[in-house]
Structure formats: structure tokens, C-alpha cells
Design a protein that fits this description.
about 240 residues, 4-stranded antiparallel beta sheet, about 25% helix
Length: about 240
């Protein structure tokens, strides 16, 4: 019997090793990506993506220093100078926490759902939500007199409270936020400049808010406003499913 050449044997062994390596790679377990949000201590939530920690009062410099170091604390401190205290903050996993409501929410299909674990960890309890907070996409224009300040996308949010106060929140991409409150059919807006009476005009697919020298025109995406008997009901059609 004629012996195989030495180089042929080496080639066969190399091919077998490659096949074995391929099989091992195919069946090797895939490591799960770690959650960027952690709860390292009681009442503390830390976000690895932003190198920031939070407690029941919002952004926390001391906890950020403890878990991410002095450099992260200095960076955070510089970003907070001159800004009002945080009332709401967002985490990189999509969770949003409101320190006034003492509630954390997770987004799903455009609706905010109560995040029981995060709420319990941060605030020490699970608060009962007033109602599911529904968010819609839209397009807004904001003008002060003849000066156009924004013309583009926006989000519309409805918050109904058990005390009978309804809030309509319009968020612009530049972090401007307008909160319209409906109290006994009387509409007012609140922002950093104060609270002002508002007139509302229903234009079918579009609602127009006017106060002082400001005009905010909001159009809800893929849905319109129903004609109604008073301003309160008209605004409700802008923010609610029919």
C-alpha cells in the first residue's frame, strides 16, 4: 500500500480543525448584553450610558461620585449649573421617572406603563398611576409675535388626574415644555415664566393655543380634532383616541 504524502496529511488535519472550530463557534453561547441601568443601592438608580446616578430627588451628585468617580461628578455638576431642579429624567433603557408623581414609567407602543420595580426602588413604594399617560407624535409651530421660534416635530401628552385636573403637555425637541391645565373649563399654561390664561381654537386636525404674545399650533399625526361644544372637549380630541 502506497503511503500518503506528508503534506496531504497536514492538509487533511487542518481542514478537520477548521470544521471543528466552526462547529464550536456555531454552538457557543451568546453573552447577553448587560442592562445599562442598575440599582446599586437602596433608593439609587445609576445609568452607565450617561455616567449619572439618581435618587428620589432626581439627579444626584454624591451618588454619581460614589459609583462613577469624581470626574463624572465634575462633568455632571458643570452641566447642571444654572438649570432648574430636575422634575423628570429619562434613562437610556427608555424608562422615565417623575419626581413629583413619585412614579417611573416604561414606554411601550406610545403608552406609558407603570414600572413597578423602578418606582419601588427609587421612591420606596408603588404609587397608583392617575391613568395611563398617552403620548402622540405631532408637528408644532411656536411663535412669539412675528418671530417664529420652532417649526417641526413635537410630542403631545395627556395626563388625567384623580383630582379632576387635566394636563396637556407639549414637548418640543429643543427641550421647551408647555403644560396646559384645564380647571373647570378654564385653560391656563405654565412654564418657567409663570402661569397665563390661554385661548384655544379648534381647527379640525389642528389646535391653536394663544397666550400673551405667544401662539402654539399643534397638529396630531394621523388623527384629527373633533368639533366640540367647548375648548376643554376640543383639546381632549387632540390628545385622545376617538
Amino acid at each position: 500500500m502506497k503511503a500518503r504524502p506528508h503534506n496531504v496529511c497536514l492538509t487533511a488535519l487542518a481542514g478537520a480543525a477548521a470544521v471543528t472550530a466552526g462547529l464550536l463557534a456555531t454552538h457557543a453561547p451568546v453573552e447577553a448584553r448587560p442592562d445599562p441601568v442598575s440599582m446599586p443601592g437602596s433608593g439609587v438608580i445609576c445609568d452607565q450610558a450617561s455616567q449619572t446616578c439618581y435618587d428620589r430627588d432626581g439627579v444626584s451628585l454624591p451618588h454619581t461620585r460614589t459609583y462613577f468617580g469624581p470626574q463624572a461628578e465634575r462633568r455632571l455638576w458643570s452641566g447642571l449649573i444654572g438649570r432648574p431642579p430636575s422634575r423628570e429624567f429619562s434613562l437610556s433603557n427608555g424608562t422615565v421617572c417623575d419626581v413629583r408623581e413619585e412614579t417611573c414609567w416604561s414606554d411601550g407602543n406610545g403608552r406609558r406603563r407603570l414600572d413597578r420595580e423602578m418606582t419601588r426602588e427609587l421612591f420606596g413604594k408603588v404609587t397608583r398611576p392617575d391613568r395611563e399617560i398617552t403620548t402622540y407624535s405631532g408637528r408644532c409651530t411656536l411663535a412669539r409675535g412675528a418671530n417664529l421660534m420652532h417649526d417641526g416635530t413635537c410630542s403631545l401628552r395627556l395626563v388625567e388626574r384623580r383630582d379632576g385636573v387635566t394636563r396637556y403637555v407639549v414637548n418640543l425637541p429643543d427641550e421647551r415644555r408647555f403644560v396646559f391645565s384645564d380647571r373647570s373649563d378654564r385653560l391656563q399654561v405654565t412654564d418657567a415664566t409663570g402661569s397665563w390664561p390661554v385661548t384655544y381654537i379648534d381647527h379640525g386636525y389642528t389646535g391653536v393655543f394663544r397666550w400673551r404674545d405667544m401662539t402654539l399650533v399643534a397638529t396630531r399625526a394621523n388623527s384629527g380634532l373633533g368639533r366640540s361644544r367647548n375648548a376643554s372637549e376640543g383639546i381632549g380630541e387632540l390628545f385622545k383616541d376617538r
